[in-house]
Amino acid sequence: MKIVAISDVSGGYYNKRGIDVNKAIEWVQKHKSLEGGEIGDSISNEDLLELEVDVLVPAAKEDQITSHNASKIKAKVIVEGANGPTVAKADPILDDKGVMVVPDILANSGGVTVSYFEWVQDRQGFFWTLDRVNRRLERMMHDAFNNVFQTAERYKVSMRLGAYILAIDKVAKTLKIRGIYA
């Protein structure tokens, strides 16, 4: 995959030939922001969201994709790395445009999953290798994506609603098995 745009608090940067991500990381490590890094042409964060790209990853702030700019989004897929980057009123607009939105509850759940792995290891007093953690994480994320996707397809709803349906179904089944006061 070619990364053509990135942003931080200093603004957005675009390079249609692709951004050298390693160079950008090195620059930020030395200078604390992308500003001045000759990474690409300066672009506003608002314009960055509307670039013609295959995948858009809003990964910093909430409420970035709104009912005002959703119709201008050209990405085919949005992977929500931040918590709540898309407001509820933007979802139907994106859905009508055929944009697949991988919701935050799924897309950025890897950190919580690895925290769970840490808890399990602490309880066992046995610690896994990084390779084992990554293999388990990959399997769980793959399974989670497939389950959400299949649920969304089954009910003919967005991935976000598919994730909610799956979550509510798991809670309902657990309450039924354990009882409400278990």
Please specify the SSE layout and strand pairing:
Blueprint: E1 5-8, E2 11-14, H1 21-31, E3 41-43, H2 45-49, E4 55-56, E5 77-79, H3 91-96, E6 100-102, H4 104-107, H5 110-124, H6 130-155, H7 159-178
Helix pairs in contact: 5-6, 6-7
Explain what the structure shows:
The protein is mainly alpha-helical and 182 residues long. Helix content is 48%, strand content 10%. Strands 1-2-3 form a three-stranded antiparallel β-sheet. Strands 4-5-6 form a three-stranded parallel β-sheet. It is globular, with a radius of gyration of 19 Å.
Largest sheet: 3 strands, antiparallel
The largest sheet has its strands arranged as: 1-2-3
Instruction: List low-confidence stretches.
Output: none
- What overall geometry do the principal axes of the alpha carbons give? globular
* Helix segment tally: 7
Helix fraction bin: 40-55%
Return the average pLDDT rounded to an integer: 95
What Rg, in angstroms, do the CA atoms define? Answer: 19 Å
* Secondary-structure content class: mainly alpha
State which percent range the strand residues make up: 5-15%
Following the backbone from N to C, one meets helices and strands in this order, namely EEHEHEEHEHHHH
Structure summary, number of beta strands: 6
Distance between the termini: 47 Å
